[in-house]
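User: Please predict the structure of the protein below. I'd like the answer in structure-token form so I can feed it into my own downstream comparison script.

Assistant: Understood. Taking the following sequence of 461 residues as input:
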Amino acid sequence: MQYKTEPSEKSTVRITMTFDKAEWDEANQKAYLRTRGRYAVNGFRKGKAPKHVIELNYGKGVFYEDALTDLFNDHYPEAIEKEKDNFTVVGQADLSVEDIGENGAVLVAVAPVKPEVKLGAYKGIKVRKAEYNVKDADVEAELSRLQERNSRLAEVEGRAAENGDTATIDFSGSVDGEKFAGGTAENYDLVLGSGSFIPGFEEQVVGMNVGESKDVNVKFPDDYQAEELKGKDAVFAVTLHKLRRKELPEVNDEFIKDAAGAESVEAYKKETRERLEKQAKERGDAETENNLVKAVTDNAEVEIPDAMIESEMDNMVRSAEYRLGMQYGGMKLADYLRYMGTDVASFREGYREQAKENVKGRLVVEAIIKAEGLKAEESDVDAKIEELAKAAEKTVEEYKKDVTDSQREYLAEDVVINKLLDLLKKENTLEVGAAEEEKADAEEEKAKKPAKKTKKAEKAE
């Protein structure tokens, strides 16, 4: 087999494989021996007819497709291996036959390859540095959440239902006098004001007294998930059995000791602030690193083959399905999407732009690492292992026993990425900017101030 390669459009390579008469005849003979059992010929037991007899009955090219498949499977990987220093194939090749006949065949494979990256500026640029500040309100919010986690529901007597109450109710819904699936329940605990029921339902339970029954009239939203209920008027027969109200524990040193293990309220607040400040720094550092990578990625040019984008989309869908199963007790993605009124194809397509960004980012990072000659020395990996051993409260020797070659390779990649991030931080200007939450706070304060009247508005008054 002789082959030649040449660049093709959109980060693909065209590999032309030429097979002479001897190779072609051998491939057809192998195809005949492997597939002759498929063909029935009068006068011969199945699988016993000679090759030329089958060709007379089914056509001269009866074995061509199988022969071409064999030649591709046998020789294409060989060509890819020989050319591995020149390009890296990243997806399935599109095949076509350029020439075919008794004297040989020419097969063309157009394969997507890892593209060349044209790096833009990745030094001397300005990038936003994210910083998140911990406020007193953040610490108080953590304290409030601690109270919530240790709250209890106390029964309410002598008044009507209010927002914030947990109402234990029976309900039975009907549309046009007919009950519908999922519209009936007994001793259901509903937090009034939570918005968990369709609009108008909870508002009508507010004001009911324990033991009271009433009809609640509502209308299903036009975008309700159940097709047969969209936009329909419904009546729910509701009976209120019990009212309970959340009671929060008093915040004092005794409560803090029991609930959080801290010595006092002040000690808890100090520890909480330190924890939040550590989280804020980690969050800011991670966001700053993402900003750096995005900035240098935006400055680069690369023509990404569709195969890499499609593969990344598949990975993202698999990741989403895994997270869904973990969060919701093994729920299948198809079931979740059916509930949401969409399908896997549409869901997958929604990842396309992010997949492009992900792939481009990885390619640009690889290109900068190569341009800068960044690599992980053995001492770098050993230092990383020592750090991990310390965190695991083990000796280095104990920890190393469980470190496989693949894990060591992963640690080496992590070291290189950290070297890259350190380089980007050193070689670029990080400008402190308000974090997104702080910007939102500023916008909220601005919105609270009365708008300045225009002359036109003053005249209208």
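That's the full token string. The domain at 268-444 is CATH 1.10.3120.10 (Trigger factor, domain 2).
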